[in-house]
Amino acid sequence: MIHWNSFSDFLAMGGYGLYVWGSFGVTALIMVIEPIAVARQRKTTIARLKRQLRAESRSTEA
């Protein structure tokens, strides 16, 4: 079992704190950004497909 003498020792993680907490931070940031990016891409793709469908229906009507 790992035991730290203080909260600052816990944050330091035996000298690897910057790497450990930096990794957690990057992961958390990606977990926030990824769903936003997917939702935007989905919205863009749906709009593009709707425009394409309208253009195709206009060309078959003419």
Automatic annotation (TrEMBL):
TM helices/strands, residue ranges: 20-39
The entry's keywords: Cell inner membrane, Cell membrane, Cytochrome c-type biogenesis, Membrane, Transmembrane, Transmembrane helix, Transport
The keyword Ion transport appears for this protein: no
Organism domain of life: Bacteria
Keyword flag Heme: no
Pfam families: CcmD (PF04995)
Protein name per its UniProtKB record: Heme exporter protein D
The species this protein was found in: Azonexus hydrophilus
